[in-house]
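Milestone M4 deliverable, item 7.
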Amino acid sequence: MKIGDLARATGVSVRLLRYYEEQGLLVSSRTDGGHRHYDEGALTTVTRIRTLLAAGLPTRVIRDLMPCFLGEGPELDTCVLEHLQTHLRELDTRIADLQQARTSLGDLLDASSRASRAEVSPG
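Output delivered:
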């Protein structure tokens, strides 16, 4: 299938498909005219890439995980589960840090609003 057909079938832009190929995530062959051609497995590959990107994994990690898929679904071999669990813990830490920053910012806004109201209140 041509790159435009793959883009339409997956909802992923041609530009992103080229990027995935540059990153070693997606493979194409070339026609005599130099056009990219993808086999039917490319649909599954792009879906898997999108799933892993949605999970917050960088393309360098995704490249390593691509051979670890089981069957046609999104399931990965157990040998990569520890890596995924580490990534999940890192996300949890970042979320906790962001929640703390949000709380601190909210407290600062509240205190600043109270101070502004006190300055303009006759008193």
